[in-house]
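Postdoc handover notes: sequence design on the structure in folder B. Input tokens:
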């Protein structure tokens, strides 16, 4: 299931996995579906994950990526996103402009059957598990690039803003 969205989503879960009542969510985020940034003929890949997240209470935000082997990556939003901060400033919410994240997740050929799960946390709110099927995505990628050598860069690179 490749359900990561490019739309702003308000978190609907507490940190224990229960559903929060309407209006109690204080975490909003936006994620672009991961893209293969680098790959080689041995099946080693680097997935690029881009997005932003904000706590409406000003709490620290953490993104976590895991698979069947456990946690693969922790990341705090540290990249400036003045466009996102300006949106919340118009709502009289004083949030930092460091709301964005953009990181690479390296997987070996043996990991290409992984089902990645990403969660974003802030205070008592959590996004819930956002799943990404690496195997399905990687098969499509190999069909496009052929893999005679090494591939670097996004296939259909556009300056999309997430």
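Designed sequence:
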């Amino acid at each position: 299931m490749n359900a990561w969205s490019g739309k702003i989503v308000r978190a609907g879960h507490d940190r224990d996995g229960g559903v929060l009542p309407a209006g109690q969510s204080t975490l909003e985020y936006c994620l672009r579906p991961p893209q293969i940034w680098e790959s080689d003929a041995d099946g080693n890949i680097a997935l690029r994950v881009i997005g932003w997240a904000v706590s409406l209470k000003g709490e620290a935000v953490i993104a976590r990526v895991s698979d069947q082997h456990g946690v693969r990556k922790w990341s705090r939003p540290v990249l400036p996103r003045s466009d996102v901060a300006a949106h919340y400033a118009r709502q009289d919410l004083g949030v930092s402009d460091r709301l964005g994240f953009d990181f690479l997740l390296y997987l070996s050929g043996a990991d290409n059957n992984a089902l990645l799960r990403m969660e974003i946390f802030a205070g008592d709110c959590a996004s819930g598990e956002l799943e990404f099927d690496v195997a399905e995505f990687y098969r499509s990628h190999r069909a496009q690039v052929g893999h005679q050598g090494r591939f670097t860069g996004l296939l259909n690179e556009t300056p999309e803003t997430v």
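Context for whoever picks this up: The chain has two helices and twelve strands. Don't rerun without checking with the PI first.
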